[in-house]
Write a structure and sequence with these properties.
With 261 residues, the protein is mainly beta. It is 0% helix and 33% strand.
Length: 261
């Protein structure tokens, strides 16, 4: 997807608590529930993926679903993606009703609580078994999306690669380009990584879980971020959005962030 030299800047395993915070993202309300986004989830510090990268959703006695989520937000390392970064991972999904695997980003606010465009969100992929061979690819920053059919097979691993370019976000699956949005994330974007499984509540044409389902899962391995070796983004801006006035990442940063419904 690019012939520029790239260096690995992030490849921490999901068990690394300096790199990944469990069950917390400012994209969710503080109580860990997100019904306004058609989710039956409840995330929390007890719901982490396995060291092998298996993300599970488990039905609780009260009818909620405890769902695994990790994010680089709130982790001591505080890793953030920048324009020009390339994200790759090997993923395996299953066509179990209700399952909602996702690999995505969420951005820090500008000073004064002003959010980045689209809250800095890029859905590197979302998957719904309603369309078992389709991936949902969305750049909320640049307002672009695609739903390529026949690119994955449930139960079979696929290699995802996403180049988060300033002028275009480009996706490939198993080495084949599937979408170039021609919009990009802009010069000063930055975003935390989020990996999770959610449980659909049944809206938007996505089926809820079957009554007899008590657990489901998907797997993400080899998650790696590569960055142009120059140490700046392709446009030459300072890292982490400093030219736009973003607060600089701090390992002790625990300020409250606005949440979405």
């Amino acid at each position: 997807m690019t012939d520029r030299p790239l260096a690995v800047v992030f490849d921490a395993p999901f068990s690394d608590r300096t790199a990944w915070a469990v069950g917390r993202t400012s994209a969710y309300p503080e109580d860990g529930r997100n019904p306004g986004d058609n989710k039956l989830d409840r995330i929390g510090p007890d719901h982490a993926p396995t060291p092998e990268g298996v993300f599970r959703a488990r039905r609780a006695a009260d009818g909620e679903w405890h769902t695994d989520l990790v994010s680089t937000e709130y982790a001591p390392g505080g890793f953030e993606l920048r324009p020009g970064d390339e994200v790759s991972a090997t993923c395996l999904v299953h066509d179990t009703a209700g399952s909602w695997p996702a690999l995505w980003t969420w951005g820090r606010d500008r000073p004064g609580g002003r959010p980045q465009p689209g809250h800095g969100e890029v859905d590197l992929f979302e998957y719904h078994p309603t369309h078992p061979r389709m991936l949902e690819l969305t750049n909320h920053v640049g307002r672009a999306a695609a739903y390529p059919p026949d690119v994955v097979t449930p139960g079979r691993p696929f290699q995802l690669r996403v180049l988060l370019g300033e002028d275009s976000v480009d996706w490939s699956v198993d080495g084949t380009p599937v979408f170039a949005d021609g919009q990009g994330v802009g010069r000063h974007w930055c975003g935390w990584l989020v990996v999770c499984v959610s449980m659909s509540a049944g809206a938007y044409g996505h089926l809820p879980p079957d009554p007899g389902t008590d657990e489901l899962s998907w797997r993400c391995t080899g998650l790696t971020v590569r960055r142009p070796a120059s140490g700046t983004d392709p446009g030459g801006a300072p890292p982490d959005g400093a030219a736009e006035g973003f607060p600089q990442p701090r390992t002790t940063d625990r300020r409250p962030y606005p949440t979405t419904g």
